[in-house]
Amino acid sequence: MESVAPIFSFNIGGFPINITRDIIVQWAVILILGIAAYILTRNLKRVPDKRQVVLETLYTTIEGLVKNNMGESYVGYIPYVGTLVIYLLVLNLMGIIGIAPPTQNLSVTLGLGLTSFLVINYTAIKRNGVWGYTKGLGEPFLMMLPLNIMERVMLPISLALRLFGNMMAATMLIEMIYEALGSIGMLAQIGAPIIAHGYFDLFDGSIQMLVFTMLTIINIKMTAEHH
């Protein structure tokens, strides 16, 4: 696949680093979102204009998501959850502008899954201490230790595979639709795929973002309070 083939490579200490199209797309998204966040959050006023109303609506939506599913004590995770929502949504919707979503690349979703894994377990250790966290792995009784460890390890993998599988399937179906329409004629590819993009990119991409985010925030709370 084009998105997996390296555009250029280099070595660090003998370890090869491959820069793929999906990595470059992610860098571009991060840069654009960073610039947009800086510009849109400048000169905020007590009496909000239309731009600020949209920003405040977005913030209160994320705030409600965190408070309703995690509780008041987790409000510090609003920036992380908000970043996850916006970043994942943008990546998943790239197909609308004709760019294959980076989330149809397993290495990308594994990276996102690993990030959630680190946040989940860091929170549990921070709230319970190293001993409390370790002790919790043996609950409700010591024989559950191997299963609890396996559950922790499998979580980022399941998150990654779920997101990857759905986005890969959506991307392949869109490509098949274009190929089928292309066999009819070039004009058939104009306008006809709008419904497919609306479902597989906009609807399914939004759903997969929500599923990944919800599983992350629920596991942050459950893992921290299980101990």
UniProtKB/TrEMBL annotation:
Q: Write out the annotated subcellular location.
A: Cell membrane; Membrane
State the CDD domains in the record.
ATP-synt_Fo_a_6
Q: Does the keyword Disulfide bond apply?
A: no
Q: Which domain of life is it from?
A: Bacteria
For this protein, the record's PROSITE patterns field holds: ATPASE_A (PS00449)
Which GO terms of the molecular function aspect are on file? proton-transporting ATP synthase activity, rotational mechanism
Query: What are the GO cellular component annotations?
Result: plasma membrane; proton-transporting ATP synthase complex
- Keyword annotations of the record: ATP synthesis, Cell membrane, CF(0), Hydrogen ion transport, Ion transport, Membrane, Transmembrane, Transmembrane helix, Transport
Describe its membrane topology: Multi-pass membrane protein
Q: Which coarse location class applies to the principal site listed for this UniProt protein?
A: membrane
Q: Which InterPro entries match?
A: ATP_syn_F0_a_bact/chloroplast, ATP_synth_F0_asu, ATP_synth_F0_asu_AS, F0_ATP_A_sf
Respond yes or no to whether keyword Cell membrane is given for this record.
Answer: yes
Task: Please give the start and end residues of each transmembrane region.
Answer: 23-41, 77-100, 106-125, 180-200
**Could you give a single Gene Ontology term from the biological process aspect?**
proton motive force-driven plasma membrane ATP synthesis
Pfam families, per this entry?
Answer: ATP-synt_A
The UniProt family comment states: Belongs to the ATPase A chain family.
Q: What does this protein do?
A: Key component of the proton channel; it plays a direct role in the translocation of protons across the membrane.
> What is this protein's name?
ATP synthase subunit a
